Amino acid sequence: MNASVNLPTDFLTAIQNIVGEQRVKTDTDALMTWGKDWTKHFEPNPSVIVFPSTTQEVADLVKIANQFNIAITPSGGRTGLSAGAVASNGEMVVSLDRMNKVLNFYPADRMVHIQAGMVTEQLQDYAESQGLYYPVDFASAGSSQIGGNIGTNAGGIKVIKYGMTRNWVLGLTVVTGKGDVLHINKGMIKNATGYALQHLFIGGEGTLGIVTEAEMKLERQPQDLQVLVLGVPNFDAVMPVLHTFQSKIDLTAFEFFGEVAMQKVLDHGHVQRPFESQCPFYVLLEFEAPFEPIMDKAMELFEHCMEQGWVLDGVMSQNLEQVQNLWRLREDISESIAPFTPYKNDISVLITHVPAFIAEIDQIVTENYPDFEICWFGHIGDGNLHLNILKPANLTKDEFFAKCQVVNKYVFETVKKYNGSISAEHGVGMTKKPYLDYTRSDTEIGYMKALKQVFDPNNVMNPGKLFDL
């Protein structure tokens, strides 16, 4: 039985009148598919799935939800890792799957106006078709949607050069929790007319309203990207390697992963070990090398790192196919560890603090999870670490998560000690909600709740995510 039977008939009729009967789903398959994201902590229990195709339809749906006091969970590509898009309490899921079109392109501004349901890879492909580049990239680019990326301020593998999603949003069309439509900033680079409201919705996880359209900035295409994968002996060697290369070359990526992560990817059989040496940890560097002197400098820096003992072995890409295969060593990690039901921590500190921070976290993890496989990887060039604890076969999911949550306190106390973040790029959702005060002060959270009241006075927009009112 699904929850839709509890919905008032007048409510169902009203939303069908807005979007059409064919775009309202209450069957069990639809409820289970669109009611969840990639997290496995919470069971989905939505009441109805609705598929609007315009901003006005979204606004009308929000107004009806207010009228009947029905909560809304916005839904994009459902690739989130913090349960921000899980509808677990009978919510109406508003899916943006149909809102995936390019609305306008402004060549002189290097800007494209899109609907928020556009898949990340779709935007990347469109940019390429215009001779341009959309640089926010991550493993879920083939299914994540721009609206979801905006809602969590997604980062990914190129942040060291290009920054987070926030850096690429020039304007938003938003439906607030009241059902008001706001056209914010309208694509302008310079606009000194008071509060930059768009930034409240970037990272707001749909708690203030639903992003329906966005003006996104594009960039020139990178030239002759090269990749180095280097094996390093320990955590302490990672930062000297970063500093050495960064002082002489503009890096577009600096990624990090351990041998456990490497082995899980290799077990899938799609790629081979990049060199014979098996190392405790690896770093992947990417940079543009349109001119021969840059390649010469990269080799010089590589040899210097070898001489210092910071690098044990390494390989540099020789062609585009090798660039793609070396990247797979990093990008295939999430997929490779998924069968092990990983408990994910997505934490960050200032780059300055990374060596000491990693040492402390590693000690906590080693002491508390002596029998668990620990899979380290992350965007270490911008201070973001992904700590994944893999579930042993002899524990149930609930038993395993319970053990992991006991140690969260120690991990997040260390994050707080270094003034870091409990969620660098995955959002807070429901999984990190109990730990928000490790990163945000009570006063800050009070202001955030006050903003929620302004934009969403009836608390219909994604309630129970980020914080509880």
From TrEMBL:
GO MF entries: (R)-2-hydroxyglutarate dehydrogenase activity; FAD binding; metal ion binding
EC number assigned by the record: 1.1.99.39
Cofactor: FAD
Source taxon at top rank: Bacteria
Ranges of residues in domain FAD-binding PCMH-type: 42-221
Lineage: Bacteria, Pseudomonadati, Pseudomonadota, Gammaproteobacteria, Moraxellales
Catalytic reaction(s) noted: (R)-2-hydroxyglutarate + A = 2-oxoglutarate + AH2
Keywords: FAD, Flavoprotein, Metal-binding, Oxidoreductase, Zinc
Name by which UniProt lists this protein: D-2-hydroxyglutarate dehydrogenase
Subunit (UniProt): Homodimer.
Originating species: Acinetobacter sedimenti
Family: Belongs to the FAD-binding oxidoreductase/transferase type 4 family.
Enzyme class at the top of the EC tree: oxidoreductase
Gene Ontology biological process terms from the UniProt entry: respiratory electron transport chain
